């Protein structure tokens, strides 16, 4: 059941009414039942997988809390890790490892056929597995108490707004909200609906529109060279941001309808001045997860400089592998890790401009202020282009396709006018379509820029009633007009 589907448009109001109409003590049960129904709509069989994961983590967490012996506690933790990561490995990485081993063996002219398993990747398995592992680790560390009410714990793991693509919530934030008896707050629900509209706008109006041209090029790469490859890559850079941040906005907004606050997952990442800042703004729930459960346990920055840089690389290589079972994702993660190592090596993190919130306050009106602003714009452009380059490996089907895009994007650049004319003709876009794309990207940029200082949705809510409702209606009409008839388009991160 996709957020942008007709089925969800029926499902959500029904769950909303039941949640607030039934006694408050039943709220967690409504969440649990609706969440499992939501997940069963994808594949009934895989509901047993999330249930089994929930049971194993629930039992091991209670055993961890009761056990005082250090060796036994480590054993229980190992059991939880072995099961959760074992299931994830089997469904997501088994074929990848098997093919990779076969490739290595065949290089020695040894005949070897990889053993493959024909199973579908359960939707959201990477997300709920990481949320489960975080819970068990937190109990092991003593940061949270084990939850003894199985139903409420199961509702926490399966909470449908963030079940299949995050945000990856922490126990200390989400579980207490699931357990408490919430009271309806009109302001919170209204804000949630507006946030959902903005999320749908980013997904349907911007991401899905750009996806048409991205898919046209990346699915037929060898038919294109030059500027068209560059434009498709830039379009994908915007597409994946609007697609995933749109999903996150819908998830956060949907949760607010039930009186629950989820963490913000994006904060204008393409307005960053360094790769480190980019990752403090992009997929925040995942980047902080890797920080707390991989990077810091490895030693973080409390070790030698050489080991610190190794920790950065390991963290990002694992992050890349988490995104997908392919070498393209590993390289994508490695590129970002290497960039942060280089920033650390040359002291760019110490020299980078402060975040936009502080920067705006401190900016002077004189030459120094203008120079600082120009420098910031240059740095933001560099980070954006770097991110776009890395996204090539994320979008390409294989390493060969990624190499082709990199090699031929600048093909013909020596003749600028011909380069531009050929690229424009290859786009197969009308002037109206080009202006639409530019307008949507411009609107996104303005929103992101203002959101660094202001809560844009709250600000619009304070506008004149005619003006703000005009904005709402225009957005809703655009969403309805551009929504596909029939099957709704999936969200990119559902594949992870």
What is the topology?
Elements: H1 6-21, H2 27-40, H3 47-66, H4 70-106, H5 125-141, H6 150-158, H7 171-179, H8 186-218, H9 227-256, H10 275-279, H11 284-295, H12 305-323, H13 327-345, H14 348-351, H15 356-362, H16 367-395, H17 399-408, H18 416-427, H19 431-451, H20 456-461, H21 465-482
Helix pairs in contact: 1-2, 2-6, 3-4, 3-5, 3-6, 4-5, 6-7, 8-9, 8-19, 8-21, 9-16, 11-12, 12-13, 13-16, 16-17
Q: Mean pLDDT across all residues, rounded?
A: 88
C-alpha Rg, in Å? 24 Å
- Measured as a percent range, the helix fraction is 55-70%
- Number-wise, the strands total 0
Q: Please provide the ordered H/E string of secondary-structure elements.
A: HHHHHHHHHHHHHHHHHHHHH
Q: Largest sheet, described in full? A: none
Gap from first CA to last CA: 16 Å
Number of helices: 21
What structural class should be given to the helix and strand makeup? Answer: mainly alpha
Low-confidence runs of at least 5 consecutive residues: 351-357
Strand content: under 5%
Global geometry: globular
Describe this protein's structure.
It is a single chain. 70% of the residues lie in helices and 0% in strands. The chain is mainly α. Among the domains are: 6-179, no CATH class; 188-268 and 406-495, no CATH class. Helix 2 (27-40) crosses helix 6, helix 8 (186-218) packs antiparallel against helix 9 (227-256) and helix 8 (186-218) crosses helix 19 (431-451). The longest helix is centred in the N-terminal third of the chain and has 37 residues, at 70-106. The two termini are 16 Å apart. Residues 351-357 have low confidence and may be disordered.
